[in-house]
Design a protein that fits this description.
8 strands, triacylglycerol lipase activity, AB_hydrolase_1, Rossmann fold, Alpha/beta hydrolase, AB_hydrolase_fold, alpha/beta, 8-stranded mixed beta sheet
């Protein structure tokens, strides 16, 4: 899971519930103090929330962009139903389209992290007109890596096969992290950060987790469809990634003629691990686009990887 570096909203940002045609969604909304150069909708990944983008809000607003991060249905502070079908890919894509429409800013830049990348590409493939560009962050062409699929199967089995509670699953995950050499203390000790991660986990709907976990293991390769989108595309990742290998992301970006950005020093969550560099590179991409580039022209082939480490 992504671990946001801090939890306090920056000056000028506010938390509220965004009313849409498909219900209300908890958001963090940061608006620029000066010239408004556009709006970006930030969609979090598996086990994540709007807080995963909290460190991007201020630099994006300073760059002239209204930045809106959202909890999807069943994620953290946005409630969701018990019906697993409500969390299917197309249902979540319709939510994103409704969120973009509710912002009332015309076409928006759309960014999805990890699972969020699979959701936002489904939204753009369904209807690209509400978007100025599409950015896939740490999100690949199809299923996650074999190692992550095994961990995901264990989670589904715990939730559905064993009928474990979210609290029981949380403790089991922490135990496995410790056995595998991880450091579970930040998620267990009574610190502000650890308490947030625990609270977020418990507030996430188990049906959302199980359904989207299957999506991570079964997602089809949609690169050929994406390549036909009339949107500028960008593929962002850290220098390393455990969910989708970086060489796979490189190849995907090339096939998409997408701008390729690698963030030095970051792993699967450059938005939380290296937010300053990530915001700067995103602003470079979005600033390079004309207001009419969203649906009028296809993206040009631009490659801008970080030097090898």
């Amino acid at each position: 899971m992504s671990r946001p570096p801090f939890l306090t909203l920056p000056p000028g940002a506010r938390a509220y519930r965004l009313a849409t045609a498909r219900g209300e969604f908890a958001v963090h909304d940061a608006r620029p103090a000066g010239t408004h150069r556009g709006t970006v909708l930030l969609v979090p990944g598996f086990t994540g929330s709007k807080e995963d983008f909290i460190a991007l809000l201020e630099p994006l607003a300073e760059g002239g962009l209204r930045a809106v991060a959202v909890d999807g249905r069943g994620q953290f502070e946005t409630p969701g139903p018990d019906d697993a079908s409500a969390y299917g890919r197309e249902e979540l894509a319709l939510d994103v389209l409704a969120q973009a429409a509710a912002l009332g800013d015309g076409p928006v830049h759309l960014l999805g992290h990890s699972l969020g990348g699979l959701i936002v590409r489904a939204a753009a493939l369904r209807d690209p007109r509400p978007f100025r560009s599409l950015t896939l962050m740490s999100s690949g062409r199809g299923p996650v890596s074999a190692g992550q699929q095994e961990r995901t199967r264990l989670l589904i089995h715990a939730l559905e096969g064993l009928g474990m509670s979210m609290e029981e699953v949380w403790r089991e995950m922490r135990r496995l992290d410790a056995e595998q050499g991880g450091d579970p203390e930040e998620s267990i000790l009574p610190t502000e950060h650890g308490a947030f991660l625990h609270r977020r986990w418990l507030a996430t709907h188990p049906a959302q987790l199980a359904t989207t976990a299957r999506q991570l293991m079964e997602e089809p390769d949609r690169v050929a469809e994406l390549a036909r989108l009339p949107l500028p595309l960008c593929v962002v990742s850290g220098a390393e990634d455990y969910a989708w290998p970086v060489p796979e992301l490189d190849a995907m970006a090339e096939e998409l003629s997408a701008r390729r950005v690698r963030i030095a020093g970051a792993g699967h969550s450059p938005n939380a691990e290296e937010p300053g560099a990530t915001a700067a590179r995103l602003l470079e991409f979005w600033s390079s686009l004309s207001p009419t580039s969203a649906s009028a022209t296809a993206p040009s082939a631009v490659s801008s990887p970080e030097p090898p480490r």
